[in-house]
Specification:
Elements (H helix, E strand, L loop, with lengths): L7 H24 L16 H19 L2 H27 L9 H20 L7 H31 L1 H7 L7 H21 L3 H26 L4 H22 L11
Helix pairs in contact: 1-2, 1-9, 2-3, 3-4, 4-5, 4-9, 5-6, 5-7, 6-7, 7-8, 8-9
Length: 264
């Protein structure tokens, strides 16, 4: 995958991804809470504020590190490990007992997709690490990361239909036919997920997903922040949607073809 890290999609995705992590870290430090929506640490659990401050510092520094190519691999490695622990240790343990219900699926998919993008970013960023065994693990991060991200998009799409009315209510009132738009965005998620999983129009699907999330930041989340500037949940919507946009662009970069038809 030589050269992928320096493509437009990868650089744009890494920048958006980095800024979102920095913002989430600042939010955790300001409010003394675990990383909202990604770090599902229960309020009644011991060490709630301590976990918030500790994870806030970690993701803030890792986000800053992502902005420099020389530090991006280490920073992405830290984020990949952290989000894997959150996905398995926090989200999956809540999801499994209620797997037939929809309540925890979206949170699981958000953290799972961020882990996927972080692992892909580790795999494409130079310099390569020293051992051949570790390099093989990193190489596997690209196809497995694609699969994890594609599956996450399918879950997002399914949740648009399970919670169709809620999704429609979240859309600004000036949009015409909000229920139809909720359906279309659900289908867009599923189409992008299937494209990434199948490899058919995968770069286009991932890129359009990134554009879709970025458009949500502009037309959905920022107006909600303007209406409720002191609500951390609304700010968190901006940060997470931005992060998903960056993640999609990172995944899209791995499907860029070189002149000989092989992935770079």
């Amino acid at each position: 995958m030589n050269g992928v890290w320096d493509t437009f999609e990868a650089r744009l995705g890494r920048l958006i991804f980095a800024v979102a992590w920095v913002a989430l870290g600042i939010e955790s430090l300001v409010y003394g809470i675990p990383v909202m929506r990604l770090e599902a640490w229960g309020k009644g659990w011991p060490g709630y504020m301590a976990a918030g401050y500790a994870s806030g510092v970690i993701v803030l520094l890792a986000g800053i590190g992502l902005m420099w190519a020389e530090r991006a691999k280490l920073s992405a490695s830290i984020l990949a490990l952290l989000t894997l622990l959150w996905t398995v240790g926090l989200h999956l343990t809540r999801l499994v007992p209620t797997i037939t219900q929809g309540v925890y699926w979206s949170g699981f998919a958000e953290c799972f997709s961020v882990f996927a993008a972080s692992w892909v970013l580790v795999s494409i960023m130079p310099p390569r690490l020293i051992t051949n065994a570790w390099d093989r693990i990193l190489d596997n991060g690209i196809p497995i990361g694609r699969i994890c991200f594609g599956l996450s998009l399918l879950i997002f799409g399914a949740m648009h239909f399970v919670y169709h009315d809620f999704t429609a209510s979240f859309i600004p009132v000036w949009f015409p036919d909000r229920p139809l738009l909720a359906t279309l965005t659900g289908l867009a998620h599923m189409a992008a997920g299937l494209a990434i999983l199948s490899g058919v129009l995968a770069r286009l699907g991932a890129t359009l997903a990134g554009i879709m999330y970025l458009s949500w930041v502009l037309v959905l989340h920022i107006p909600r922040v303007v209406a409720a500037p002191h609500d951390p949940f609304e700010w968190n919507g901006v940060f997470v949607a931005s992060m998903l946009s960056g993640a999609a662009f990172i995944v899209a970069a791995t499907f860029i073809k070189s002149a000989d038809g092989e992935p770079k």
